Amino acid sequence: MTVILGIESSCDETAAALVTSDRVILSHRLAGQEAEHRPFGGVVPEIAARAHVEVLAPLIEAALADAGMHLDDVDAIAATAGPGLIGGVMVGLVTAKALCHAASKPLIAVNHLEGHALSPRLADPTLGFPYLLLLVSGGHCQLLLVSGVGQYRRLATTIDDAAGEAFDKTAKVLGLGFPGGPAVEAAATIGRAGAVPLPRPLLGSAEPHFSFAGLKSAVLRAHESGLHSAQDIAASFQQAVVDCLIDRTRRALELAPEATALVVAGGVAANKAIRAALEALAATNGLPFAAPPLWLCTDNAAMIGWAGAERFEAGLFDGLDFEARPRWPLDPQAEKVRGAGVKA
Ligand code: KG4
Ligand code: ZN
User: Fold this and answer.
1) Cα distance between residue 56 and residue 47, in whole Å
2) Domains detected in the chain
3) Measured in angstroms, how far is the CA atom of residue 316 from the centroid of ligand 2?
């Protein structure tokens, strides 16, 4: 049994966790920065980096204390090394390197997306490879065939916005606050999903790619028309996203018949309507469905520690010269998709 210290700092959550190779989360600590970013309606990179600097070291100490452990008890240190906001990623990675150097521990540089991609295996010991993963977060919207640790084939990505980005922008337009996903979901529960006609971009297209820019513009027009309540727009928007995600995932399942399970991960996977629709799709296809518990869906360090544990078992370690990567696709072989140059 190995014990991994996981560190996450790629966006607006600072987190540290201790995770074992037999799936025990010994401790996990998380400090959000919502209050700092709320006045700006989005994450401000400089503010995020400064906040990570202030809280990371005490957070690591607290995570160790919670588990009754010292750095010496840890077998390796796993830190998010990208993709993400470069200032924050550097804070976490440099901290990890310093601790590795001081305590003579191996470093494991984790791709944040791999953290999300493997997180369902932390929660579900029965989940084996290969599985089809819908990875939906604030920065990414991808369908990946996960065949093993470090083995990812990207079947689809977004040609413009990520799904979480669409939730965040919709919340901003509707004045529902920040962060947008949970606010839109809450408003949607009291709105009527059929009230506002909204587009479903790329529905039915042969490649399982995503597009949300047109939907976002339609939300803005619906709001400016003054004809609809924020709740009705939120519910209609959420239904449109569900329809797109389901149609595209159904197509990917046709393209990847070897998948033995359907899995969802990433911050948007916290959305109950999306989880329920995916679960139904999996059942229709006779596949088991796996989704991490809600707190493991949004950014956290347990998933980074777990990815570290999986890499440790596979003998995958990194040198202390590993550099932070603002962009880092999980599948470097994947074709570039029109308009998607900025999405990993
Ligand atoms: O994975 P994550 O915590 O950070 C990134 O790596 O992006 O995902 C954050 C995203 C945000 O866009 C947030 O609005 C969205 O996940 N999100 C949700 C919900 N909770 C978080 N979107 C829809 N419904 C939710 N309940
Ligand atoms: Zn994330």
Assistant:
1) 14
2) 3-117+296-313 (3.30.420.40), 129-287 (3.30.420.40)
3) 22
Beta bridge partners of 262: 132, 289
CA atoms within 13 A on the CB side of 170: 37
Q: Among all chains, which residue has been given the structure tokens 């956290």?
A: 300
Each as own residue / partner, the long-range contacts of residues 22-27 (CB below 8 Å, 24 or more positions apart, any chain) are 23/122, 23/125, 23/306, 25/122, 25/302, 25/305, 26/66, 26/67, 26/69, 27/62, 27/63, 27/64, 27/66, 27/67
> Hey, whose CA ends up nearest to atom 16 of ligand 1?
267
Q: Are 114 and 140 in contact (CB under 8 A)?
A: no
Task: Quote the ligand 2 centre to 240 CA distance (angstroms).
Answer: 22
Q: Among the bound ligands, name the one nearest to the CA of residue 292.
A: 1
pTM: 0.92
What is the residue-level pLDDT of the chain in tens, covering all 344 positions?
999 999 999 988 999 999 999 999 999 999 988 888 888 877 888 888 898 989 999 999 999 999 999 999 999 999 999 999 999 999 999 999 999 999 999 999 999 999 999 999 999 999 999 999 999 998 899 999 999 999 999 999 999 999 999 999 999 999 998 779 999 999 999 999 999 999 999 999 999 999 999 999 999 999 999 999 999 999 999 999 999 999 999 999 999 999 999 999 999 999 999 999 999 999 999 999 999 999 999 999 999 999 999 999 999 999 999 999 999 999 988 877 765 444 43
The pair of structure tokens assigned to 281 is 């799709």
CA nearest ligand 1 atom 8, residue? 267
